From TrEMBL:
Official protein name in the record: DC-STAMP domain-containing protein 1
Biological source species: Pteropus alecto
Top-rank lineage group of the source organism: Eukaryota
Signal peptide, first to last residue: none
Single GO MF descriptor: zinc ion binding
Domain RING-type, chain residue ranges per copy: 34-73
Alphabetically ordered keywords of this record: Metal-binding, Zinc, Zinc-finger
Claim: Metal-binding is one of the keywords in the record: yes
């Protein structure tokens, strides 16, 4: 039964994001959250600068995402082959 709670929470987060964008007077009372880990927005949080996106990331998730917004970046640009550094590749022994 945790699925309905999860969908209720995600719907609430989406509603808060929409209200934050469209109702400037409500912004002081709305707490947006990191789209990755759901941490509350802080002054150190990163907000995507893409005009129609404005997704919020905590600083550590933004760094983990290599400073690329998965909410508005095309999937093919985020694929492992297009988005990996040779220094970060891990090789496993068989």
């Amino acid at each position: 039964m945790s699925r309905p709670e999860t969908s209720d929470k995600s719907a609430r987060h989406r509603l808060a994001d929409i209200l934050h964008r469209r109702c400037p007077l409500l912004r002081p009372w709305l707490r947006r959250r990191c789209v990755v880990c759901q941490a509350p927005e802080t002054p150190e949080s990163y907000v995507c600068q893409t005009p129609d996106c404005k997704a919020v990331y905590c600083r550590s998730c933004w760094d983990d995402m290599r400073q690329r917004c998965p909410a508005c970046t095309p999937r093919e640009e985020l694929s492992s082959s297009a988005f990996s550094d040779s220094d970060d590749d891990v090789t496993y022994a068989e």
